[in-house]
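ok so for the tutorial part 2 we go from a plain amino acid sequence to predicted structure tokens. step 1 is just haveing the sequence, like this:
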Amino acid sequence: MVQPFTLDDRWRWRIRRTGDHLQIIVPVITLLVILWGATDLLVPFLLSWLLNTLLTHGIKYLTNRRRPMGGPRSFPSGHTASAVHGAAFMFVHVSPVLALPLVLAAVFVGLSRVLARKHFVGDVVMGAVLGSGTAIGIVWLIDMPPDLPAFAAAAMVWAV
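step 2 — the prediction. this is what the tokens look like for a chain of 160 residues:
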């Protein structure tokens, strides 16, 4: 008989902690790349990060959805929103090639939140929508035309 895939508590803790770290590392790497060679993107990045944070936490407090294992404010996933924001901003505004490891890290963060039983899948999906939406949408808010091929590619990545 085939046993279902399960994670013991040690692995669940390791995966959760790695996701906790990556949700900070991904946007920090994006910020460092911007400071190193694309300083004209600093204000859009900081504005989109602020908007992402305000929207994510505002929705958390408005909905106050219970977490899978108990506890408040599950919806949307702030960890996922943060990681996806950093990856999406890098992908659309800086370099899709440089963003590839960040995209993979952001996907891991989302998966880690579900595997650690901190969020439902819908929480993670909404966090990804908020993170990518604020990273991509900030260009329209401050009247900076986006690079259309990169924008289309980012939309395809986040739609999958």
